[in-house]
Amino acid sequence: MRTNLTTLCVLAALLACGACERGVDADKDTSLPADGGTDGGTDADTGTASDDTDIDAGHECPTPLCDSPCVRRVDADRNADAGILGDGLTWATAFAAVEEGLDAAECEVQGCGGTCAVWVAEGVYYTYRKDPRDTVTLRPGVQLVGGFDGTEQSVVERDVIVHTTILDGRDKGRGMKQVYHVVTGANGASLDGFVVRNGDAGGGALHEKGGGMLNVDASPAVRNCKFSENRAANGGGGIYNLRSSPHIENTLFDGNRATGLYESCDMKSCKGRGAGMLNEDSAPTLSSAAFLRNRADLVSEDCEGTCTGDGGGMLNDRSSPEVMDTMFIGNRGEGMLNVNSSAPDVSRTLFFGNAIGMRNRSSFPTVSTAVFANNSSTDVGGGMSNEGSAPVVSDSLFVGNDGGGMGNINSAPVVTSSVFVGNFGGAGPGGGMFNMGSSPMVINCTFVGNRSYGEAAGAIWSELGGAPVVAGSILWGNVSPEIAGSGVTADVTYSDVAGGHAGDGNIDADPIYRGFPAVASQEPDSMWYDEKMFITTLEDSDETWTPGELAGLSLLIWSDAVSPYPLFAHIIDNAKTRIMVLGDITAYAPGASYEVYDFRLAAGSPCIDAADGDVAPSFDALGREREDDPATPNTGGGVPDYADMGAFEYQSQP
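-> structure tokens emitted (654 positions)
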């Protein structure tokens, strides 16, 4: 729960890279002019020098040089004047087009073995020549690398932020035509340091998937890239993977769309699926990636209305990606949607401000050290929604989700060492967790500050069958009753439940959290929201804090002028005079007051050494081993009999 600060720093770097699209430098404007005429900056068709319709037409290989290291260079600006013959061996004799560099590098790999790199200088390289099927096809053993200014002698000298290199799916002239796929992947290939934009997969069959990149039985490496403003009619606006396992690192998916298709104005066919990425029978690996403002929806100028598609950020269909240190922020449609027995492994990942953070349909994800914050649903499960699924969730935080923290329909999730704080069950009871015909296991979790529609069961609500099991958990400070249901009785043991609950080892006592009472009811001197980083900063004139000490804790803020209910927000970092939280809470600014809550146990808590050691995980939400507090009698059950209730193990020496 305290790992996402690193991920947010990655987002800052990726956004900075995206901002560079406005131009390479003061003398080179890489954007199209307003009148749609020929661009005046550094740009080039990515095809070969021929006029073939297909830019991937075959090419003849000269006698290979077998140089080591093998590097070929591309810089349209070097060959802007007629008469310069490029061979790609130096920047002075660089090729003018990306495809020329790829052809030459491929010949070297085929003739000499090993690998070859193609270095591409800053600028805009247009993909469309004469046909929407034109594409930049990666080659086995060839590394396509952008971010150069055209003078470097080593790849470590490049700067992908300063020297933006763009693969653009439009035609070079008026920019009115677009290719189906800007890039097509290959096994053993890599794409590193590019902005990939303006692909429009609007054809048929595979040509309606993968506007930015198409991978079919292909698993390239993608690093330090940005996929933006790409569209697909039937999935994978940014990237589409079919039977593929690409490795994707430090890459941003921003503003891509899976728009869907209208069969007629009377019968809508909402086929928008996986706007950022669509995986089918695939297992990609993602690290330090971000899915930002992607949209899976259906829009038509001829027909009124829209419908929301599936998987605004990522959709996994019979797929099991590994996702770590990644963010899903502000996507329309779910941040991540898993269907048809998909089993992604998700860790150290943030789901913030999506139309449902993660939805699982007949799937089995494993989720650890994740944060689900400020997501929303018009039904149940704003943070996570499970239908016929059995996710395993550990060491995670569900905070401020509208529609509830987790919604389970005919599902059997296992949730351990996790915190549900400040969630609102907008469409039904169960602010923390809603269960319909479901049998969740809730082990050593903490529920606080959750509320629900109709003020019923702030923490956990169950109905229509199922047998929820709650063990070693703390349910305190939610809207009363803490646990309730309709025709369903939860099996609760060794837990602290406000108002009490039948079951072995249960108590009804203030858990005594550590908290920060010194700042209770404090009003910030100022508050502002950074819409680019999705962060609100609260500032006080006094130097109150040790930098970083509040990261991962919860901030409660309220203003009687705005709402009778307090708002919980997730603290990502702090300085001496500032606290930074996820989301826009500036509406609470007039007369607002705040408190900082630390839900770790304080000395003297009745929850210390009081849980069931037979079911409690060996480590708490912060990865700390169980500790027998010598000052507290062991009232727990099982082995060991000194595990603590709730998500956090008490430490006498924190």
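The helical segments are 4-19, 98-112.
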